[in-house]
């Protein structure tokens, strides 16, 4: 990491800005864009899958309703005495056979009455019964069909895609069932063709390709009419043959598809049907991909414009920086008549003005150095003054601390121990402010800072005007707390509580542990106190970020830092009586132990 930072610092400002733009803007935007696009694509695909599943459930229900009528009719024919007698009677004449067929109109009535039924026919072995497109003889060709063998192999309802020879081989989904005639110890095979128009009407409303497949993987009905009558292996979906119900991701012809399969097993049926819905993934996510491409295009254009703007801004910054660098180089070579005319209130403009101040200061110092040669005795004083002026623009708390320490030593050597002690405590306060950071500090360290502060104030006000007591349990000294949360409360007590007190001012600081392991610190004074209205205003100001009154900033800062660190159960609690003093309780419910 250090090596990377070293290399980065060796780059020109323009290059640093470009790299920062890539890291801070371009890469995160690309990552977010790719993530959102993928999420959008997945959401669209899952929504389409849910819709397809719901549609398939609906088709299963509707198909079951369509098949219910043929099933009920077949149950009626199973116990029909009229049908049994008609099929098994040996007719002496053609007239007798014709009359019997005319009298039996159950098949014709059912076709007229129920729109779910397209055609009904019964195959029986009775040569004396004439064929009339409803009752047909069992020929060798019929006995060789799959549906006939299946019906005789196992009792029950079979759903199969069959051909109707009475209608020139027209095919449709049919109920096939062996009808036993126990009285005559014979049987026939009933075939009820389901009306294909109902399936066409139902499936044509589906948004995706949907089909009804029988047990032999033959498409009995489909939204795409060219698929009807073909096996799945003949279509583009060979992988669907024999698939159980569920949702699948499959590839056909190099294209990705989402497939939803549900089974329909009607009551008393030997075999069932499968409802299969297929849609190409690209047809669903195509719009999402188009939006993604459009978004990437807009992003690319935006990034290009941003890069151009960054280049322009970087050029302006580097140009101004180079001007300042050349001016510094001239000063380094001894030219103190340089003046930097860089305008602006940004950092470079401020540096330019500081540069001019520095050059002016150096010129003044040089003039003083020349004048100091007049007297040997004043040389050291003037040189020291020049050095102080040269460092005036760079003075910092470290310098103040070191200066105070030097003053303290001089005072101590002269026997002014009380003043030296006060200066030492002031130095410690400054050093603590220098070293303070975001880390938590022990409570004992915070109390030491408060003690120094109160001793200094006691020195200012005098022994009669201010006294203080610190009563904190000794085992709490290692408890870690945020820095500078107690000193502002004490300062508030001194400045606003005791300013109006002529003498007898007292500040008490107490600390104890709560039963839940928390910490309670109390800062109390016997000062002027507050009226109820002012107390209410101060309480309200603790949680009001818009409050900007100067004397409330310290309390609000401490309160909000505590709430941020420890939650709403922490913070400051104010109590005060006008003319009697003020008490501030500081609550920390959870503590870190060092």
Account of the 3D structure:
With 594 residues, this protein is of the alpha+beta class. Among the domains are: 51-283, Beta-Lactamase; 336-390, no CATH class; 469-594, Heat Shock Protein 90 (2-Layer Sandwich), CATH 3.30.565. Helices cover 51% and strands 20% of the residues. It is built from 17 helices and 18 strands. The strands form four sheets. Strands 2-1-5-4-3 form a five-stranded mixed beta sheet, with helices on both faces. A five-stranded antiparallel beta sheet has the order 7-6-10-9-8. Strands 12-14-15-17-16 form a five-stranded mixed beta sheet. It starts with a helix and ends with a strand. The model is unreliable at 379-395 (pLDDT under 50).
Considering DSSP H and I runs of 4 or more, what fraction of the residues is helical? 40-55%
Q: Total strand count, please?
A: 18
* DSSP strand content: 15-25%
Structural class: alpha+beta
Task: Give the biggest beta sheet.
Answer: 5 strands, mixed
């Amino acid at each position: 990491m250090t090596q990377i930072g070293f290399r980065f610092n060796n780059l020109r400002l323009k290059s640093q800005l470009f790299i920062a733009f890539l890291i801070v803007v371009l890469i995160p935007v690309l990552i977010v864009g790719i993530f959102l696009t993928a999420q959008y694509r997945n959401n669209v695909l899952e929504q389409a899958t849910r819709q397809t599943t719901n549609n398939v459930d609906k088709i299963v229900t509707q198909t079951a309703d369509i098949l219910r009528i043929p099933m009920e009719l077949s149950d009626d024919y199973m116990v029909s005495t009229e049908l049994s007698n008609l099929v098994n009677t040996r007719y002496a004449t053609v007239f007798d056979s014709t009359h019997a067929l005319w009298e039996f109109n159950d098949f014709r009535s059912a076709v007229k009455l129920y729109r779910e039924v397209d055609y009904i026919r019964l195959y029986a072995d009775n040569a004396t019964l004439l064929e009339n497109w409803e009752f047909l003889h069992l020929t060798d060709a019929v006995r060789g069909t799959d549906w006939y063998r299946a019906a005789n192999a196992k009792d029950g309802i079979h759903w199969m895609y069959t051909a109707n020879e009475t209608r020139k081989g027209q095919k449709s989904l049919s109920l096939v069932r062996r009808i036993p005639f126990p009285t005559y110890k014979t049987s026939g095979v009933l075939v009820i063709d389901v009306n294909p128009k109902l399936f066409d009407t139902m499936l044509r409303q589906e948004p995706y390709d949907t089909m009804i497949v029988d047990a032999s993987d033959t498409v009995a009905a489909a939204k795409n009419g060219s698929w009807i009558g073909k096996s799945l292996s003949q279509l583009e979906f060979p992988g669907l043959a024999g698939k159980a119900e569920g949702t699948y991701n499959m590839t056909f012809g190099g294209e990705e598809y989402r497939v939803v399969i549900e089974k329909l097993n009607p009551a008393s049926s030997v075999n069932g049907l499968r409802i299969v819905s297929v849609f190409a993934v690209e047809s669903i996510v195509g719009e999402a991909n188009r939006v993604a491409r459009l978004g990437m295009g807009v992003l690319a254009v935006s990034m290009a414009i941003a890069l151009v703007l960054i280049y322009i801004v970087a050029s302006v910054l580097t140009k101004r920086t180079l001007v300042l660098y050349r001016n510094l180089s001239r000063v380094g070579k001894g030219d103190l008549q340089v003046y930097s005319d860089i305008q602006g209130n940004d950092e470079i403009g401020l540096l330019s003005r500081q540069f001019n101040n520095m050059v002016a200061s150096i010129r003044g110092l040089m003039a003083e150095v020349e004048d100091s040669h007049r007297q040997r005795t004043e040389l050291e004083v003037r040189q020291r003054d020049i050095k102080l002026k040269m460092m005036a623009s760079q003075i910092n708390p470290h310098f103040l601390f070191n200066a105070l320490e030097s003053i303290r030593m001089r005072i101590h050597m002269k026997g002014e121990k009380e003043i030296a002690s006060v200066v030492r405590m002031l130095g410690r306060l400054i050093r603590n402010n220098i070293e303070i950071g975001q880390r938590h500090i022990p409570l004992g360290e915070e109390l030491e800072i408060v003690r120094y502060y109160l001793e200094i104030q006691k020195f200012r006000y005098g022994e009669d005007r201010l006294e203080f007591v610190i009563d904190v349990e000794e085992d709490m000294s290692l408890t870690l707390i945020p820095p500078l949360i107690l000193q502002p409360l004490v300062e508030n007590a001194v400045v606003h509580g005791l300013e109006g007190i002529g003498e007898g001012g007292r500040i008490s600081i107490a600390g104890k542990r709560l039963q839940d392991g928390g910490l309670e610190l109390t800062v109390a004074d016997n000062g002027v106190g507050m009226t109820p209205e002012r107390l209410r205003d101060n309480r309200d100001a603790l949680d009001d970020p818009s409050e900007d009154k100067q004397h409330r900033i310290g309390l609000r800062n401490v309160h909000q830092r505590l709430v941020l660190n420890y939650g709403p159960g922490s913070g400051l609690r104010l109590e005060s009586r006008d003319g009697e003093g003020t008490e501030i309780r500081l609550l920390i419910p959870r503590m870190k132990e060092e």
